[in-house]
Design brief:
105 residues; alpha+beta; YaeB-like fold; five-stranded mixed β-sheet; 31% helix; globular
Length: 105
């Protein structure tokens, strides 16, 4: 990691999300890894996802999202969900709540 870049980490469920994308996994990974150079490129969320950000990107088949938390003190983006836009936020809320309960964010 260079001084200008952040570390991008994936929770175990987010790793499984990527694997489930099968032939789109590498492309989705490249899109999410852009956070290393610009961790605030995703949209800041409100409500039950306050403190998290969502990065939108397009791949074959439609719109996709990655939700993450940017920790400026540790210079780490913790990605906790990656997937198609459809029904994305309901699962993102559940996972974010679990991360807060575990004290990971």
């Amino acid at each position: 990691m260079t001084s200008g870049e952040w570390d991008v980490q994936f929770t175990r469920p987010a790793q499984k999300d990527l694997a489930a994308l099968k032939n789109l996994e590498a492309q989705a990974f490249r899109e999410v890894m852009k956070l290393a150079g610009d961790p605030y490129r995703g949209e800041a969320k409100r409500g039950s996802l306050k403190g998290a950000r969502a990065l939108g990107f397009t791949m074959p088949g439609g719109a996709y999202r990655a939700a993450y938390v940017a920790n400026k003190h540790e210079r780490v983006c913790l990605v906790f969900i990656v997937g198609p836009h459809e029904n994305f936020y309901k699962e993102a809320e559940r996972r974010y709540k679990a991360l807060r309960k575990q004290g990971r964010v």
